[in-house]
Amino acid sequence: MSEDPLIATSLLGAARLKELPPAPDLTWQTTWDAIPMDDPAAGLLQALALSRAARLAGKKTVEAGGVAEPCKPESCEELGEVAVAALLRMLGGEFREVLPEWLDSNESTGCVVPARVLPELLEAGRRDRSLRASLAGLVGERGRWMAQRHEKYAWVLDRTAGGEADWDGDHDSDRLEWLRQTRHQDPGKAVAALSEGWAGESPDFRQSVVQLAANEALACDESWLENLGLKDRRQETRRLAAAALMQLRDSAFAIRNRERLRQIVRIGGVLRKKIEVEPPTAFDECWAADGLREKPPAGTGEKAWWLQQIVGMVPLSEWLVMLEVTEKELFKITIEPDWKDDIVLGWIESAKNLPAHSLPSGLLVFLAELKVWPAKAGSRPQVLASLLAAAPDPDPLLEDLAKRLPEAEMIQLLTSHRRAPRSSKSLVIAVIRKTLWRTPVTITRPDGRLLALCVPLTSIQGELEWLSRLKELSAPAEEFATTLEFRRNLFTTTTKES
Amino acid sequence: MLTADQVTAIVPDAASLKAGRGLATPRKWQSLGGDEEALWGLVTGSGKNPYQTRVSLADLASKCSCPSRKFPCKHAIALMLIACGEPESLSEKTRPEWLTEWLVSRAERQEKSAAKKADKSDKPVDEKAAAKRREKKAARIDEGVDLLKQTLLDLSREGLASPAARDASTWENLQRRMVDCQAAGLAGALRFVKEEVLRHPQVETELAFEVGRLFLLCESYGRREQMEGGTRAEIEALVGDGPRSEDVKELPPVLDDWFVAGRRVFERDRLVTSMSWLLGRKTRRWAKVLRFAHLPASIAEPWPSGSTVSVGLCFHPGKGPVRALPLDDGQVASGPVPEASDKDFDAMLSRYSETLTGSPFLRTLPFLLELRPAASAWLADVHGRALPWLSDEVEVLRVESITGGASTLACGEWDGSSLRLLAVADGENWATINPRNG
Measured between beta carbons, which residues in chain A are less than 8 angstroms from residue B342? Predict the structure, then answer.
């Protein structure tokens, strides 16, 4: 029941009402007293009308609370209208495939979005973690200001280094920046700071730190990686720590791994043209500390499982040293058939861990030409795509693969690779044309959109002209064409604007 | 010059816009043409013959031979989008027959309806019969007012806690009776009770006040003869259906450069209403301009929010910020945002209570003043005084993003208990907040 006596009366009704409750305000007293009460129902209604007017006219402002310090002015240039409109469409789900390419291309310009579209951008980042790193660079001062006000956008602050390298700061980005610098300048200090607070750090931050080391391992990292990183609770962090340690050729970890491998693999045969394998017969307890797992997944034998892991933990380049062969020879040597699949699985694992040391071109050709593909490795195009993604210069490798892979697999590889070669004379385009031309169609509509990402910007016009000469476009070819058009409009107009 | 914003403003729904964008590439069209007045094109569809799509640029009306029941259809949307983005691809300049035919038939239709109107006004008015009709109508409205008054008195006696007072059907039945009695204004007020008041979180207080307001309106209507012109006209408009447009257009127009400060678009019973608040740069007067369309048609708004229109407006009689009818589409230009209507919230509140004295049934008052977002659901003026803000999360984020916490000119409405924002200055632009609201 309302506290206002007049409202309370109105709820009960005027049937037994003798007189009105007191006026809401002394200033209204005279008018209040003038309300005739010969019909209490009418009197009550009049009093209500009067009370309403009194409330409306008497509303007062209050002292404002929670007024934030206004945002600093933006120093970066704003994106053009066309680019903003396209970005919003992509974030809304149209031509979503093109978004990573656009984000990459925009990174170098350093432009930020106009403030009015920030809500869409921040929401997109909140929903999709994978976009956060790129979006954080687009939000500008205003976006950081918003992130300070709204907890749900805190990821912006963690990803935009304020340029302040500060280990004691609040934001992960500042702390990582400090670490990045200090590791080179004063390794001892960096390692001491890390080791001291390791247990208190968040799992995400620990993973980011180990990732930093995995990108570029330094000699100073060995002790903390071995003592803390390899023992982390998170599996991904342990895997990254192992990958980082593998890069340190002289680390005890790398030496132990090489030693394990040396005991089970050797070159043999009459002409030294065969890799002989003698897998371990028992699991050594101390292997577990290096991240090896004893229990195999369903469908894999114990010995094979241990063998795969041991191979996977040694950089492929070590094989050349160990077997005293050249890269060319290594991939030509016959592998003992019983264990060939496991060696190949181990090589793939090793290459994934250490893309820089994985002899990608030789390995990729070897994998592309492998007659019997080990099913446990997953699909071949996907494995090749993941190795390509980590390669510093994928273009020549892609050309090489276009020559060797069957068309269907090459198309699958391209739909995972999603990046255009630089040269417009690429074989990739020939493969795509062949597929689009084929009837009946062998690819899906999403495939059509993804393939459009593999056409270099300079070739888009030519491809569209080629398509316009086709009599009829299949649905995937239609998707291919619209995506190409979208890319053309997006990238050519954006450059025009800037 | 057609802009993409104009096109997106008239699309029937998001799906049509998406489909239209998909078709907005010359590759999908067999032919494309355009001139000063019209756009046309042939597009391949699922039918045997290509669809003939045509758009008249004057009012963005369109016609297409496709079977779609959306209006405009995706083909017309695509054609307009092509005209915005790639006008050079409208290469054909000779109008096809099917376009000319359509334009001619449209022109004929318009002429006919204008002639019909002129015919009507030319007809000698039978003064006697008209007076009789007016009398009859007034009697019916009186009947409705009496009926409503009696019902309100009954509710007052029984108490507003009674099931009848809280039952939406009570109010709906009353609304229907008011429609029968030609009391359109009262019918609208009763719909407001049913749709807004009964759903209000503080329904006890709001319902009591609203019932009081309605009762006072009925009482005042009975005593309107004793009131002065402006107040009386307002009361009559709130009860009946307001003055006739022809009569309003007879009044002397107010010429000014009107700043299109805020706009709300809402749909009710398949009637789309676009309500714009205009502020005269010289007269400093507020005007409410309404445009309507029946679904599936949409409103082609000639005045973008934030633009300035030189036009004569004929105001409905009344004292508060009242409805006005534009003489024509006027001259649209861009210009800076005019000076604020109030220096701060306190000034706006006193303007509100002053307006209330003359127009006691006033609901909302438009404002244009500098403000910034404060703690959640509050807005603060330049002096750090705050009023509650009726908003949702999306709106709060948008306003915070645009203002960045700095005081910014904004347009909105005050209804006596909370503010509602319609547009806010965004650098050089005038950004609409949540345009499809209401």
Answer: none
What does each C-alpha distance from A127 to A94, A98, A131, B223 come to in angstroms? 16, 18, 9, 61
pLDDT at position A496, please? 44
Nearest CA among B329, B283, B336 for reference residue B308:
B336
pLDDT tens for each residue of B121-174: 666 667 888 888 888 888 999 999 999 999 999 999 999 998 988 999 999 999
Contacts of B410 in chain A (CB under 8 A): none
Q: Is the predicted pLDDT of residue A1 greater than 80, yes or no?
A: no
d(CA A336, CA A343): 9
CA–CA separation, B218 and B62 (whole Å): 46
**pLDDT for position B317:** 87
pLDDT number for residue A449 = 93
Q: Which of B18, B156, B391 to mutate to test the interface with A (most CBs of A within 10 A)?
A: B156
Q: Do the strands B385-388 and B408-414 form a parallel or antiparallel pair, or are they unpaired? A: unpaired
Q: Is B347 on the interface with A (CB under 8 A)?
A: no
Residue contact A115–B375, C-beta within 8 A: no
Amino acid at A426: S
Q: At what angle do helices A235-247 and A340-353 cross, to 10 degrees?
A: 90
User: How crowded is residue B157: how many other Cβ atoms within 10 Å of its Cβ?
Assistant: 18
Of B157, B360, B405, the CB nearest to A71: B405
Shortest Cα distance from A176 to chain B (angstroms)? 28
B245-333 has which fold? OB fold (Dihydrolipoamide Acetyltransferase, E2P) (2.40.50)
pTM confidence score: 0.76
The answer to ipTM > 0.95 is no
Residue B67's CB: how many other CB atoms inside 10 A?
A: 10
Radius of gyration of chain A (CA): 34
DSSP symbol at A283: -
The minimum CA-CA distance between B118 and chain A, rounded to whole Å, is: 45
Q: What is the Cα–Cα distance from A339 to A348, expressed in whole angstroms? A: 14
A-B interface: how many C-beta pairs under 8 angstroms? 177
Phi then psi for residue A112, to 5 deg, are -120, 160
- What residue in B sits closest to A478 (Cα-Cα)? B28
Q: Which residues of B touch A53 (CB under 8 A)?
A: 356, 360
Terminal C-alpha separation, chain A: 64
